[in-house]
Amino acid sequence: MASAHCPVCKSPLGSWEVRPLFGCHHCRWALRANVGDAFRRALVVGVLTECLLLLGLRLWFGSWLDILDVWFGMGAGLGVLAGEVVYSHSLVVTPLRPQKHLRANA
Ligand SMILES: [Zn+2]
Question: Is 72 inside a domain boundary?
Fold first, then answer.
């Protein structure tokens, strides 16, 4: 799925790592991501894309029976692709705590 980057160390984060609350495995910084909002937006855009494709095919071919196999093949792939693009653009990863500098003589 989508790739995100750590806002602190700029290292890439795997999609399996990104959760509402998680830690960067490179710099160990606590991070927050809007996974739920991004997923809901991706789901809405994916479903709308499939509906628009279905309506476009219906206008092009004119018969529901002629378009069902084309829609099942194309609609799923196009809807997932559109949803993934929206997910990757709407996912925001933010640091959870302020940065602290440790001094040796403090
Ligand atoms: Zn990091």
Answer: yes
Give me the number of domains the chain comprises: 1
Q: Which domain holds residue 89?
A: 2-95
Q: Is residue 37 part of a domain?
A: yes
What residues pack around ion ligand 1 (CB closer than 5 A)?
6, 8-9, 24, 26-27
3-state secondary structure of 50: helix
Cα of 34 vs centre of ligand 1, distance in Å, is 17
pTM of this structure: 0.74
Q: What does the pLDDT look like over 36-87, one tens digit per residue?
A: 999 999 999 999 998 998 888 888 887 888 788 878 777 778 888 999 999 9
22 Cβ contact list (under 8 Å, min separation 6): 30, 31, 33
